[in-house]
Automatic annotation (TrEMBL), chain B:
The keyword NAD does not apply. It holds the Pfam family Erf4. GO terms for cellular component: Golgi membrane; palmitoyltransferase complex. Belongs to the ERF4 family. Residues 138-157 are annotated as: Disordered. It is a lipid-anchor. GO terms for biological process: protein targeting to membrane. Its main location: Golgi. It comes from the Eukaryota. Signal peptide: none annotated. It comes from Neolamprologus brichardi (Fairy cichlid). Keywords: Membrane. This is Golgin A7 family member B.
Length: 465, 157
């Protein structure tokens, strides 16, 4: 580091980028109090998420079958309250609608929380960080422009673990982190992408997800039991089941829905209870690679029970842009890059030592040679299938892999196999083949994060008010 | 937050020279801990002990946040029983510690790092992956910016 003379930075004039008190998990964004129109960070978020309520709600790009899930729950519960409750209140006890109501509310709330919260998305590496990482890798003798998928070995609790490099997010993924192609984000402690809730399930929303499936299994079982009791009571006295069904047609619908869902949901709850107890994620359970880190250890430091404690309610400014930079650069940054941003693609992806000098000595908005861009655009697609095959396979193993495992019948958990194969069959219908997404994802977000990255550079210095 | 204006101009007078990234230390598991190894780029800028103190304090804060004890169990059970709606009113312990960390980093920046031409970025803004330390250098042209008096005051040394 050259010993240049430097002026003392006035700490008052150079406020540190401390986040203001983070709001609760629903509200992820902060608004900059500026007279010009402030842009919230979610507007330039590079992943494939969608945001509602001015950034308070985050969902994946495809909502999957969330409307179906909601519809089923609402319809079944509605029919229950309309058809079964009056009869049962009269003949049994009035606690039944109370219990049903509580369970129903619980299920709805946790479902919405699972769908609309950030599962633990890791913000992409800033260009400086990416350059720093590239520099370190280059130093180890790798001279090709686009090296093959890189791994870094670290020692975790005296165990050697390979950290994979994520080419989309330009960083080495921390342990137990995986990249979801559907959402185009790296998610911490990635469990799986659940189309039923239309979101990834990861570190931050796993407890919502778990509470959701457990309470849903209680609700389904409860409704199933009540409907059976109802029909049995009605059919008493020799009247027959058909008569009972005719009198209460809604119960027939409920019976069918509940009968088919209760097994799969109970199975899923049991499976996830097993995962929690053995400190695994679905992803790890299916893939054979990561089992070493945490699977099976009962050390209190690694207990999966932690996910239910306040520990993982990390509300942070993940992937967010300080509104002052966005306001300054104008609305052109939202969509695919303007000329200035295009030139930064070169800055971002050069990956040579020269990058640091050019980035450091000139303002980040300076343009580099445009001919770098075609090179980048060219190199991206040819490497992406190879590179993203890893994240694709990782995440897809979470669900689709189960298809193969269940069809080969080599799992030792028949109950969850049936549940998961059922779920996965339905999911297969709704998830488009991620392989189609894969070539697209590296190229398009490459532009977007750089416009965002420019602001990130400023973001490290500006107050996040 | 008025300082924001000054920052834009300040960047003209004190340019960003380099950034150092302190990586995570996974030797004791996956809990949040950063390496205390002193990076060579900072050798001429700050004393080793000061740097190590900062990182060690940060590590202690994170350990405190992630500690599981009676209070966290209670909080967890209460949260589960209310379908996690309790967090609309209450702040979790982790968030409280994160606030403390932010304050600590700001204080460190003001007292120790900014006077040496350095700036620490809160790791939470980098996804808890790295501690980013920006190294600033004077461009050599003081007062070139059309900045406010505070800027010219700081550069007129």
């Amino acid at each position: 580091m050259k010993n240049c003379e430097y002026q003392q930075i006035d700490p008052q004039a150079l406020p540190t980028p401390t986040p203001t008190p983070p709001p609760h998990h629903g509200n992820d964004m902060e608004k900059k109090k500026e007279p010009r129109r402030p842009r919230r960070k979610w507007e330039v978020f590079p992943g494939k998420n969608r945001f509602y309520c001015d950034g308070r709600i985050i969902v994946a790009r495809q909502s999957g079958v969330l409307p179906l899930t909601l519809g089923l729950i609402l319809v079944t519960s509605g029919l229950f309250f309309i058809f079964d409750c009056p009869f049962l209140v009269k003949h049994l006890t009035s606690f039944i609608p109370v219990i049903g109501g509580v369970l129903f509310v619980f299920v709805l709330i946790t479902l919405l929380q699972t769908s609309f919260t950030d599962p633990g998305i890791l913000p992409r590496a800033t260009p400086d960080e990416a350059a720093d990482i590239e520099k370190q890798i280059d130093n180890t003798g790798n001279t090709s422009y686009r090296p093959p998928p890189r791994t870094k070995e670290v020692l975790i609790n005296q165990q050697v673990v390979k950290l994979k490099y994520c080419f989309t997010c330009k960083m080495f993924r921390p342990p137990r982190t995986s990249h979801c192609s559907l959402c185009d984000n790296c998610v911490e402690r990635f469990d799986h992408h659940c189309p039923w809730v239309g979101n990834c399930v990861g570190k931050r929303n796993y407890r919502f997800f778990y509470t959701f499936i457990v309470s849903l299994s209680f609700l389904t079982a409860f409704i199933f039991g009540c409907v059976t009791t109802h029909l049995a009571l009605r059919a008493q006295g020799g009247k027959g089941l058909v008569f009972a069904l005719q009198e209460s047609p809604g119960s027939a619908v409920e019976l069918v829905i509940c009968f088919f869902s209760v097994w799969s949901i109970l199975g899923l709850s049991g499976f996830h209870t097993y995962l929690v107890a053995s400190n695994l994620t679905t992803n790890e359970d299916v893939s054979t690679q990561n089992i070493g880190i945490n699977g099976g250890t009962s050390s209190p430091h690694n207990l999966n029970i932690r996910i239910f404690l306040c520990h993982f309610s990390m509300i942070d400014r993940r992937g967010f842009l300080p509104a002052d930079e966005s306001a300054q650069t104008g609305s052109a940054d939202i969509e695919l890059p303007t000329l200035a941003a295009k030139s930064e693609i070169n800055v971002c992806t050069q990956g040579t030592k020269g990058l640091l000098e050019s980035a450091a000595l000139s303002p980040l908005l300076s343009t580099s040679c445009p001919q770098g861009k075609p090179q980048n655009a060219h190199s991206c697609p040819e490497t992406s299938p190879a590179l993203n095959s890893d994240p694709t396979s990782e995440f897809s193993k979470g669900c689709r892999g189960n298809q193969t495992s269940s069809s080969h019948g080599d799992t030792s958990r028949p109950r969850h196999t049936k549940a998961r194969s059922k779920k996965c069959r339905r999911e297969a219908l709704h998830i488009p083949n991620p392989a189609f997404d894969v070539p697209v994802s590296p190229t398009s977000p490459d532009a977007a994060p750089d416009s965002k990255a420019r602001s990130h550079k400023g973001g490290s210095l500006t107050p996040l008010q | 937050f008025p300082q924001f204006h000054n920052l834009q101009e300040l960047r003209h007078s004190a340019s960003l020279a380099n950034k150092v990234f302190i990586q995570r230390d996974y030797s004791e598991g996956t809990t949040c801990k950063f390496q205390t190894k002193f990076p060579s780029e900072l050798e001429s800028r700050i004393e080793r002990t000061l740097f190590e103190d900062t990182v060690k304090t940060l590590n202690n804060y994170y350990a405190e946040a992630e500690k599981i004890g009676g209070q966290s169990y209670l909080e967890g059970c209460l949260a589960c029983a209310t379908a996690y709606l309790i967090f609309l009113c209450m702040e979790t312990r982790y968030e409280k510690v994160l606030k403390k960390i932010a304050k600590y980093i700001q204080e460190q920046n003001e007292k120790i790092y900014a006077p040496r031409g350095l700036l620490i970025t809160d790791p939470i803004e980098r996804g808890m992956r790295v501690i980013e330390i920006s190294i600033y250098e004077d461009r050599g042209s003081s007062g070139s910016s059309s900045g406010s008096s505070s800027v010219s005051g700081s550069t007129a040394r």
